Amino acid sequence: MFEATVTEVRGHDVLLDRTLFYPEAGGQSADEGVLRSVSGEARVVDVRKDGEVVWHTVEGIVPSAGNVVTGELDWPVRYRHMQRHTGEHLLAQAFLRVNDAFRVEAVSMRSPTCTIDLRGDPTFEDARAAEAILREVAAKDWRVEAFEVPSGELSAFPLRRPPKVSGLVRLVGVRDADGGWWEMSACGGTHLKSTAFASPIVVLGLERVKGGLTRVSFMAGDEATEYLGRVYQDAKSVAQKLSVPVEKLVERFEATLQDAASTKQELERARSSWGETLAAGSERLGHARFVRVPDVALVVHVLKAFLDEPSAVGIVLSPEGRCGVASTRQDVHAGKTLQALLEASGGRGGGKPDVAQGQTASLDTFEDAARSFASTLV
Fold first, then answer.
1. Based on the domain organization, do 135 and 83 belong to the same domain?
2. pLDDT at 139
3. What per-residue confidence (pLDDT) applies to 26?
4. At what angle do helices 249-280 and 221-241 cross, to 10 degrees?
5. Start and end of every Alanyl-transfer RNA synthetases family profile domain (predicted)?
6. What's this model's pTM, rounded to 2 decimal places?
7. Nearest Cα to 9, choosing from 52, 67, 50, 49?
8. What is the CATH number of the domain that holds 345?
9. Is the pLDDT of residue 166 over 90?
10. Distance between CA 150 and CA 169 in Å, rounded?
């Protein structure tokens, strides 16, 4: 907690003469917390820097200018922000140690799933290698230090990225067991006191983004632990339903996919055979054929069966209103024929000269139109 004096108020924005609340900056979210005064309590929901001053956006009873307030950080929120930010520094350095080409261009830590955008096209194998490095660094519990140096002295430090500020520059570094710097960056954010507190750091995914960059999604610290715990419990629940141990879940899933693919192929073969049977037994309307199929999935198979017959015109209709026309006659255009039938029955559709599909709004009207059309064929 800290005490401060309100120097200015603009609506729900409060300016203090001093503060411990961190404003949103450098990819890190703003702190949250409360301001208590003689007037009551206000919750700090946003903090932003405007030039050299820091504004606190509050909800609740807004303190007046001149009031002395007691500020209290929402520590669990601050701590998670620290885990994300320290985790980002460690992960960026780990990728750099895997390959010097993997350099950070942008970061975001505004949600539990954080991101770093890297150059150099890292792969999942590279990500696994970076994670292995981080496990070792976390186990060694190396110290994280923050301090300020004049910009003229920055050449004495192994900076991972050039600083964006000049003058007095705040550095955040990680000392290794020999007292050297394992990681060093110019940073004004909040950080943990040692590497162990950021663990685990888990890469969740990689995706290509504009600018030739690879976006690496990750979680760190408590948020990563909670996420992995939820994922494990979900996996365990699914594994129990499948009567397999969790470690065999992927194997069982792949086998299930193969079974599903085989079943789908068998189903398609059955539908194809059924379609041929329905086409062969279709009602003859002069020089055209008409059939109402019992299932929408059979429409395409009956149409294919009609296409195997010489000088055939077949019209198909399903209970769901899905319809189609197949033609192997040069003088009957399937697409145009279907459009004409749908103009009469209401609906939309079209297609090529040999086959067309659509959707009708009225089954009976479509059938009547089909019968009328068939009577014109010679």
1. yes
2. 97
3. 84
4. 50
5. 1-230
6. 0.76
7. 67
8. 3.10.310.40
9. no
10. 6
